[in-house]
# Entry
Amino acid sequence: TQLLEQSPQFLSIQEGENLTVYCNSSSVFSSLQWYRQEPGEGPVLLVTVVTGGEVKKLKRLTFQFGDARKDSSLHITAAQPGDTGLYLCAGATPTGNQFYFGTGTSLTVIP
Amino acid sequence: NAGVMQNPRHLVRRRGQEARLRCSPMKGHSHVYWYRQLPEEGLKFMVYLQKENIIDESGMPKERFSAEFPKEGPSILRIQQVVRGDSAAYFCASSQQANTEAFFGQGTRLTVV
# Structure
């Protein structure tokens, strides 16, 4: 059973376009993280959101945590080839002992 | 401030040998998590340890796999009598407190031949 579902699974867009990646669950999370992973490397933490409805911006990336803390989205404005990678969401449950990872979204930005 | 350090980066073992994967958490972090990743797949939880204690090993196979995080030294993930199906990337992450943001190492890519 996959606790966190990400969509889309694959995304290929032209440089300069906007995109949104979704991370959904039926479970409540005490915090949610977004990571980006490049081939052959470990996931790199982009952001952590902890409050329902929270919005965080990191340059061209906007992260939102759902009001009920069950879902999140990542919006990228004016995508660049350097944004190419695997985007992973991960949630920590209030009583759990692990970070549950989403299925991942593989993004390719074509120059 | 060094990040999470894993070694070796690449490890080749013949079937039946033992694999030992090491993870040094970030300074000040006492919580360590091990994950396995197969090609084109997400990260699967294996085990969560806090200094000298295994807190949750629900994702780790009961046989051949073990993990430790001693008082001194790195966390070790040990795989005995490796089989081809053990070939994967193994990632370690650490956090300062339980279930707070975790930082990952670069992983150990195990290949069983």
